[in-house]
Design brief:
Number of domains of chain A: 1
Largest interface: A-B, 34 and 33 residues
Helix content of chain B: 25-40%
Number of helices of chain A: 5
Structural class of chain B: alpha/beta
Distance between the termini of chain A: 36 Å
Radius of gyration of chain B: 14 Å
Structural class of chain A: alpha/beta
Largest sheet of chain A: 5 strands, parallel
Oligomer: heterotrimer
Strand content of chain A: 5-15%
Number of domains of chain B: 1
Helix content of chain A: 25-40%
CATH class of chain A: Alpha Beta
Chains: A alpha/beta, B alpha/beta, C alpha/beta
Order of helices and strands of chain A: EHEHEHEHEH
CATH architecture of chain A: 3-Layer(aba) Sandwich
Shape of chain B: globular
Radius of gyration of chain A: 15 Å
CATH superfamily of chain A: Response regulator
Shape of chain A: globular
């Protein structure tokens, strides 16, 4: 698949179950979907990554993601709170966020859309369906969606 | 989005309306399609209690009376309407339009393909993606 | 501005010099001079700010300051009138510095007579006026150019929408009503389709052409061997075509994507018009005194001399116009790119034998204003 975007595609996955990282990485690689995939373990970690704080302070690169795949139920700071913070920051709010979670609670669906997620997708159980879902997300998000130029570049004015 | 949920197309160009209809037919999308010609009509449609809330909005940017960005500005600040996912479908490749749209939380920004075949493929990808995504249905969480 | 009556300000800490200067100016033949005098830096700056004089004479030595300090301050304040520095004998460094900082002239004290002073003042004023006029013209040209480019860009976008509609309708008629349309009708539909594709290519051409002016790229060091290799790779030419780089190409200062487009258009153009079973294209270069000259020679069909100018004009082709691939944009882009780099392009050709394109890129590349006459003729 050839992406129409000249910037490299960077997916940032926020998920506390590290076992799932491997599955996602393989699924993404199987589809050759992203140039780079980064993982963070919880909302706290996610915000550190986006603001280049703590362990990401000197870690270059922690490039601005083209897309964030966000789990909702994570320790320390959960996806809902992280989402609220990202969407309240004018520098970050343009990054598309897809909620990828096991939750099917109507309230979660409502609240996350209310906060401005791009979409809400229920996490599948099998590897094959994970591959399929990520394929559809990527086809949609990177083949036909036109992102603004700024997305994909490093955040310069992060507080 | 469930197959019973509707898609609202906001588009002033009859040929583009026809193109979307044809594409959705060709991929056998079961969702009912409604269309209106500009942002004002769209707001009337969405605020009319007789219409069920669409699962997805397809939005053109360049329209008379109330254009797409003006519509987004209102919808995304309306606490009842902001939860409906909006996908922009436009000919504009201007950075300014993309930035503004994403700042207003659109769930996608697509350039209308020139070629009929590609138009159909684009609609197919949009439909696949939204059939897989959950979208809000209930009204019970409004406070 | 009338130069028969000229108000002059002298900034000089020596009253004797004032008297000498006043006497010199009183003897002037062409103009009537009115000389005002202030004796230090602060008064000088203050008076200059009032903008009551057409020319300023500055003594170099002004207590703790110098005439150059006043010059610097006045330029910062946006003073548009000319300055003439009065220096001592042998102050060459000061003279040169003054000229660099924008002084109109310098005169050596003690060697000034009336004709010299008068001529210096009048020349300074005239030159300033000419400069101001030219700056204004440049500004107008720049803004007209910008408007034209924006216009082309916006119009092209607006033209595309109806075109897409026409093309779709032709497609759908063909799909849905094929049984009801006879052969002649189907041919007409096909023609609609072709014409809209051609119009689409033309609009893309305008967009491409106007984008070159809209987006200025940074000049960088570019290895042309690498660029040309990439272009040849992308062109994916047929087996019976051979592109040879005769001698190694240089690394030059230029706008990378533009130079890429230049070679891409010249080479694809050469490939397109080869009519021999064995196509040969040779790329070579030569270092001249202050530029590089490049040559792209082909053994294609050749071009008649009377068409030499025409091929560089926008939308001019020498082939029938229904060919969607050949829009007449390629070579006009090439010319524009060469001119953007301050160079020139020309060709020689023998009908039936082949064509040689030559272009020169100056070493010290500077951004010349783009000449837009041809473009304007086409657009309006």
């Amino acid at each position: 698949m050839i992406s129409k975007h000249s910037n490299s595609i960077i997916i940032l996955v926020a998920d506390d179950v590290e076992d799932r990282w491997l599955i996602m990485e393989e699924a993404l690689e199987e589809n050759r979907l992203a140039n780079e995939i980064y993982f963070v373990v919880d909302g706290e970690d996610l915000m550190d990554y986006l603001y280049h704080r703590n362990e990401y302070e000197n870690l270059k690169p922690s490039p601005r993601p083209s897309l964030i795949l966000l789990d909702l139920n994570m320790p320390r700071k959960d996806g809902r709170e992280a989402l609220k913070e990202i969407k309240a920051d004018p520098q970050l709010r343009q990054i598309p966020i897809v909620v990828l979670t096991t939750s099917q609670a109507e309230e979660d669906i409502f609240r996350t859309y209310d906060l401005g997620v791009s979409s809400f997708i229920t996490k599948p159980v099998t590897f094959d369906s994970m591959v399929n879902i990520l394929k559809t997300i990527s086809k949609y998000g990177f083949e036909i969606v036109e992102l603004p130029d700024q997305i994909g570049k490093t955040i310069e004015n992060a507080p | 989005m469930e197959s019973s949920q509707s898609i609202l197309l906001i588009e002033d160009d009859v040929i583009d309306i026809l193109a979307v209809k044809r594409a959705l037919n060709a991929i056998q999308a079961p969702n009912p399609l409604f269309f209106v010609n500009n942002g004002e009509e769209a707001l009337d449609f969405l605020r009319n209690e007789n219409n069920s809330r669409p699962g997805l909005i397809l939005l053109d940017l360049n329209m008379p009376r109330m254009n797409g960005l003006e519509f987004l500005e209102i919808v995304k600040h309306d606490r009842f309407l902001k939860i409906i996912p909006v996908v922009v479908l436009t000919t504009s490749q201007e950075q300014q339009d993309k930035m503004q749209s994403f700042s207003l939380n659109v769930a996608g920004y697509m350039i209308k393909p020139v070629n009929d075949q590609e138009f159909m493929q684009t609609l197919e990808i949009i439909h696949d993606y939204w059939s897989m995504s959950e979208v809000p249905t209930g009204l019970q969480y409004y406070q | 501005m009338d130069t028969r009556f000229v108000k002059v300000l002298l900034v000089d800490d020596d009253e004797d010099d004032y008297i000498v200067t006043r006497d010199l100016l009183e003897d002037a033949q062409i103009s009537d001079f009115e000389l005002d005098w202030v004796s230090n830096y602060d008064l000088g700056v203050e008076t200059i700010a009032k903008k009551e004089h057409q020319v300023y004479l500055l003594d170099y030595r002004l207590g703790q300051y110098t005439g150059l300090d006043i010059l610097e301050k006045a330029v910062k304040m946006g003073c548009k009138e000319p300055f003439i520095l009065l220096t001592g004998l042998g102050d060459h460094d000061i003279d040169q510095t003054a000229m660099k900082m924008g002084a109109a002239d310098y005169l050596v004290k003690g060697q000034i007579d009336t004709p010299l002073l008068e001529r210096s003042i009048l020349h300074a004023i005239e030159r300033k006026q000419a400069e101001a006029k030219q700056a204004l013209l440049m500004e107008e040209l720049k803004s007209a150019n910008q408007e034209l480019q924006d216009f082309a860009y916006i119009v092209s976008h607006d033209l595309k929408a109806p075109l897409r509609g026409i093309s779709s309708l032709a497609d759908w008629l063909n799909m849905d009503y094929i049984d009801q349309i006879d052969a002649q009708g189907q041919e007409m539909l096909q023609l609609i389709k072709q014409r809209s594709q051609r119009m689409n290519s033309l609009i893309d051409g305008i967009l491409q052409y106007s984008r070159i002016g809209r987006l200025k790229e940074q000049q960088t060091e570019v290895d042309l061997n690498q660029i040309v290799a990439e272009v040849i790779d992308v062109l994916a030419i047929a087996d019976n075509m051979k592109i040879t780089i005769v001698n190694p190409l240089p690394t030059i200062q230029c706008q990378k994507t533009r130079i890429y487009q230049l070679f891409q258009n010249l080479l694809s153009n050469a490939v397109k018009y080869i009519d021999k079973p064995q196509g040969e294209i040779n790329i070579s270069c030569e270092k001249l005194v202050n530029c590089w000259r490049f040559e792209i020679a082909d053994n294609g069909s050749g071009i008649e001399e009377k068409h030499f100018d025409k091929i560089f004009q926008l939308f001019q082709t020498l082939t029938p116009t229904d060919n969607a691939e050949s829009t007449g944009v390629g070579l006009s882009l090439v010319k524009k790119i060469v001119e953007m780099h301050g160079g020139k392009i020309w060709l020689t050709s023998q009908l039936g034998l082949g064509t040689n394109f030559y272009f020169e890129i100056p070493q010290q590349s500077h951004n010349n204003p783009i000449i837009i006459e041809n473009y304007r003729k086409k657009m309006i």
